[in-house]
Amino acid sequence: MEGSLPTVDGPDAAVTPAGQASPVFRRRRRTAIESKVIKWVFFGCALISVLTTIGILFSLISQAMGFFFEVSVWEFISGTRWTPILKPQSYGVLPLVGGTLLVAAIAAIVALPVGLATAIFLAEYAPGKVRRIIKPTLEVLAGIPTVVYGYFALTFVTPILQRVFPDMLVFNALSAGLVMGIMIIPMVSSLSEDAMVAVPRSLRNAAFALGATRFEVSLRVVVPAALSGIVASFILAISRAIGETMLVTIAAGATPQLTANPLESIQTMTAYIVQLSLGEAPHGSLEFNTIFAVGLLLFLMTLVMNLLGFWVVRRWRMKY
Fold this sequence. Notes:
The protein is an all-alpha fold and 320 residues long. It has 2 domains: 1-69; 76-316, Orthogonal Bundle (MetI-like fold). 71% of the residues lie in helices and 1% in strands. The chain is built from 12 helices and 2 strands, in the order H-H-E-E-H-H-H-H-H-H-H-H-H-H. The chain has helices spanning 23-68, 73-78, 94-125, 128-142, 146-164, 173-197, 201-209, 214-225, 227-242, 246-251, 269-277, 286-316, and strands at 82-83, 90-91. A two-stranded antiparallel ribbon has the order 1-2. The termini are far apart.
């Protein structure tokens, strides 16, 4: 009949002559349902992450407001004396910020060059068998609890350093920073190596064809081409060092002082949060609310670091 729809025979038909759905049609319908389910599962996971971040931020801000109603923001960020639970009370957070940045700087001095050199070796020099052994071994360092790193710094690294620096205190920023640098080496090396491996082989071959050595190819071709990934790994590693808690709580001490001497005892922002969370201040008091003020500042610092890493990746990212 003219104008009627064409019939479809064979396995692609929606309905078989017996009146049942064809296998191909059932398979396509099942695939479509599975795709929708997976899509909503992934959306739910992403939504949980977003809601968790919003909840954390709301908790920090709501509790920190009780502190900032009584202490000005300027006094908080510019003061050089931090004694919220001692008399006379002072609420200048700079000693905690200085201690945090001092330990993070020492860790960066250790981790960034060592991690980058390790990544260059794994990506450009190491044979496949050696790479398969060294890389998992390095990643084991990332799985060691930070409490273990803290006691390693306190009981092993500090006594060795005291032989070199007799005036060094038992709790100090140097040993904590050195061990923290060792702890974040796997993050730098793994992310940097992934960025280098992603560089096309044709760029290396072109440099070799021009007479460049392997060392020149590594430093002048591969590293610049993978610069965005390398810098992003640096920033993420430093953010990890800034947010580290147990290592600095155990090894760096609990003396909030604004100093650049790594041989002295200092206190970081995370260590202070741990100290006051143990019950030294009544819940809801001004002293207790300092935890959330310091936590909010730490959150903003790590957020700025992550945004900087995101900007670096977008600014210098090379697509091949």
